[in-house]
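Quick one: structure for this chain?
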Amino acid sequence: TILLRKTGSTDILPTNINVDANQKSVTATFDLTGVATGSWDLLLDSNGQVVTQIGGFIVSPWQAILNFES
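Got it. Here's what it folds into:
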C-alpha cells in the first residue's frame, strides 16, 4: 500500500500502482484534484513494514505561464 497523508486532510490513495518485476521500485498515480497544497507525507507499507517519508511529496498549484513575443 502507498498513500499520501497530511494532517487535517483525507488520505489520498493512488488510482494506479505498478511494481517493477524485481520489486525494487514502485510507480503510483494520484488524483490531486482539489487537494490541499503543501507538503504531504508519503507512506509505503510492504508486507507489514511501513516506511514514512515526512514531507516527501509536495503539491503545488499549477499555473499557466504564457509568454507572447510580438
